[in-house]
Amino acid sequence: MATATLTPTNTRTSDPSKKTMRALYKHHAGEGLKFDPAREKPVPGPRDVLIKVSKVGICGTDRHIWEWDDWAAGRIPVGIVTGHEFVGVIEAVGNAVTRYKPGLRVSAEGHITAGVDYNSRTGNAHIASDTRILGIDRDGVFADYVIVPEENVWPVHPKIPDKVAAVLDPLGNAVHTVMAAGVSAKSVLITGTGIIGLMAVTVAKAAGAGRIFATDMNPARRELAKKLGATEVFDPRNSSWISDVKKSCRNEGVDVLLEMSGSTAAYDQGFSALRNGGTAALLGIPAKPPLFNITQHVVFKGATVLGINGRRMFETWYQMEELLLSGKLELDEIITHEFPLEEFEKAFKTMISGEGIKVVMSVNG
Ligand SMILES: NC(=O)c1ccc[n+]([C@@H]2O[C@H](COP(=O)([O-])OP(=O)(O)OC[C@H]3O[C@@H](n4cnc5c(N)ncnc54)[C@H](O)[C@@H]3O)[C@@H](O)[C@H]2O)c1
Ligand SMILES: [Zn+2]
């Protein structure tokens, strides 16, 4: 990993009286994003909040949109403002908004639901069938302003700095996965120590995991995983690590698998290292449906398999805040770079090349 390079904070800010704003949008069905210096500023509806964006995080999803892979081509409407990880300050609220006022520093849950389907009404809104996502289905946060419904707003605790508040979305993915699996006093294997996998290492440690094993091809990421609390790290290309880990876990395997790579090979290796009766929490999204031995890995193993989608609303957000305030999470070395919005090409290049891990852009501050 490159040493952290924090460029000076962007000094250009937006003028609230202006009817236009700066924005990065998907300008064509192909690679890249375009900077629009004068996109129409959105107007909040009665139950919406208008937020002036301070900082944003670049997610793997934004990379897919940038590269315009098959998933992006099938899902992303051309013309949309992208981005969903952010922190900002409320600038205006619709006339039916009751809880929030201008001036409050906030982030928001980017999965927006109408709150009326089965799962929304039974405490599982994170898997609602009518979910619409910021920066994917509606205009996102790579802009001076974004609009979200009041219900999705998350006031940010004053002790949480903007740089961290900008990445609550992926941190929430890590917290949701770790909490769903239940890691306390258990041996844990994390396959893939990218952005979310590294966050999961520090979260699992804070949540009282026993030994934490981790795999990744990238030596710098393995090294950082170790620094953040992984007991042992392995290069997955040499599969002998599986028998080593099993041996050290009573010859049976790890109690918990957290899949955070999206690689089919890692799915296979992870389940091979899981003990019979273990729990697998699966966050990684394989590019194609994986060829997977369900008989061996799930049925005979008696494994508990948890699909992890987004963040629980809003249980994960409360857990995340508590973990952050405990001072136990180490995120500084995961958030490696910061660029002004105008330098988005450099920011994406840093992320895509693997030189940076979590790359943040400053929009207004
Ligand atoms: N389910 C959800 O709600 C949700 C949300 C966000 C991201 N995701 C998915 O989670 C995964 C992780 O996201 P991220 O942002 O941390 O991505 P990332 O690209 O930063 O991390 C992936 C890591 O996996 C490593 N890797 C690749 N093949 C591997 C293998 N065979 N064994 C071990 N490691 C391997 C890579 O080197 C990389 O470091 C992705 O698949 C992403 O699409 C899911
Ligand atoms: Zn994200």
Describe the structure.
The protein folds into 2 domains: 5-167 and 331-362, Quinone Oxidoreductase, Chain A, domain 1, CATH 3.90.180; 173-307, NAD(P)-binding Rossmann-like Domain (Rossmann fold, 3-Layer(aba) Sandwich). 27% of the residues lie in helices and 25% in strands. It has 11 helices and 18 strands. Strands 1, 4, 5, 6, 9, 10, 17 and 18 form an 8-stranded mixed β-sheet that branches. Helix 5 runs parallel beside helix 6 (219-228) and helix 7 packs parallel to helix 8. Bound molecules: nicotinamide-adenine-dinucleotide (NAD) and zinc ion (ZN). The site of zinc ion has 6 residues, from helix 4.
Query: How much of the polypeptide forms β-strand, as a percent range?
Result: 15-25%
Question: What name does the CATH topology of the largest domain carry?
Answer: Quinone Oxidoreductase, Chain A, domain 1
- Mean model confidence by pLDDT: 95
> What is the strand tally?
18
